[in-house]
Each structure stands twice: as C-alpha cells, then as structure tokens.
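Researcher: Next entry: Carbon-nitrogen hydrolase (Flavobacterium sandaracinum).
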Amino acid sequence: MPNKKYKIAVIQLNLNDVAENNLKKCVSWVRDAASQGAEVISLPELYSSHYFCQSEDVDNFALAEPLYSTSFIAFSALAKELGVVIIVPFFEKRMAGIYHNSAYIIDTDGSEAGLYRKMHIPDDPHFYEKFYFTPGDLGFKTIPTKKGKVGTLICWDQWYPEAARLTALQGAEVLFYPTAIGWHPQEKEQYGENQHGAWMSVMKGHAVANGVYVAAANRIGLEQYLPDTAGIQFWGSSFIAGPQGEILAQASHDKEEILIAEVDLDLQENVRQNWPFFRDRRIDAFGDITKRAID
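Model: Predicted structure:
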C-alpha cells in the first residue's frame, strides 16, 4: 500500500566552499533532517561548490563529476543507512564537452530511483549557465520512490508552468525545486522585494494549479569569489507549500536551516476533488502551446 502521509525536507545552506567540505557538510545536514523524521530530503542546486556560473571560465569544468562517482557513492550509502530518499543536485560530466546541471533521486535502499537533467538553462548577468550546461534531454519526469512519487525540477525550471504541469500529470505528489537564486547586491534595494515575491508567487501558483506540494531548497550567503565584482547574495527563503499554495514552512533569508512538512495524500485528493483543474483542462485547444510564438 502507498504511504498516505510522509515527511519531506529541504535543506538551506551556505555552500561557498570546496567540494570535499561541502560534501561533508551536506551529509551531516541530511543526517540531522532524517533524525527529525524527514523521509524525502532535498539539497540545494549544485550542492558541491560555490555558484561558479558568475563567470565563463573553462577551469570551472573541473568541478564536474561523471555519473555514479563521488556524490552518488556518498549519498547512496547515506540513503541506505538512514532509509530515506535523497535528492542530490550535482554538476554532471557526461563526456568531454557535454555537461549537465543534474539531480539524482536516490531511493531508500541506495539505488538510483531516477535522474533529472535541468531543462531550462538561463543566461543572465552572473548566471551564465548556458556556457556550462547542455539542456536536459530526459524530459520532465515523476519518479516513484519507496516513500512517494516525486518530481524534481531545478531552479530556472521553476518559472515555467509547463514543466510543473507535465511533471504533475505523471502523478507527482511533490515538486522539488533545488535552487541557487539571489540578488545582485546593487539591485537589491530597488528590485529585491519584487524579485523575491515573484519567485515565491510563481511556485505557489504551480502548487495551486496542479494540486501538488512544492518544496524549494535555496542556498544562502554572499558569494563574491570574483575580484572587482559585487557577487551574488543568495536570498535563502526556502519554503514548502501545500496543494492550495499555503506555506507550510519557510526559512529565513540568511540562516542555515532544515524545513520539514508533511505530505498528506488524502488532503491532496480532497483538494483536487474540490478544485478539479485537471478535469476541466481543454486539451483539445492547447495545441499552440508547443509554438515559440503565435504569430
């Protein structure tokens, strides 16, 4: 029988350190989350390093790792030991010249339940991800695990209702969004409140429109590793929302934290019965959604 209730967690951390230290740190925080009852646990985007996409530098490709190497080995053993599902976002080296922004979904027995490769790749000032990452080619997927059915999207994916919809239509109970998003310090005073508000609003909208739980795991801290630049101030504010967009847990802007909330599948079903958005979709009229623009 499927679990009718299970606890999920997102971990919010400062990850402005070297890979070895970040790995040790994340292992410790996952242990803490599991000790508090979390059964499905997500780390932030690109957990193993500082956010290197602030510049276009070929030396940063050295931060990537092949599939099933360091990150998988460590978190596979940890998931099996603790009996939890762990979402591990990492910089994947697929082959020379092809790299992805990816996430393992590791099941409670340490096996790979699924792999997701980030589909939408941004190219903004100091978020130069197109230089590093090939767009994902695995599509949007719901991953069955021994705790529940989860969908994993990554950061820039969170702005796209199509990504949330296609994942939810496959049965996802929770949409996880490992994230690395923050303010340009020089813009924060003028634009910061609206930028952060839009980020929360769009994901809460995905929760409502699809009747799913949404969990965003962001990083914190000022990462100013390039000389003569202001860096990026990651805004934290990780959160978990319920299927009506209600905030079940929310983190601060500047503290390392674990957020835990319960997924209640009976509640989710009740919400979908009363707000039957899936039933009333006019799929016969949506064909143009696959066009870049309707000219």
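Model: Note for the record: The first strand starts at residue 5 and ends at 12.
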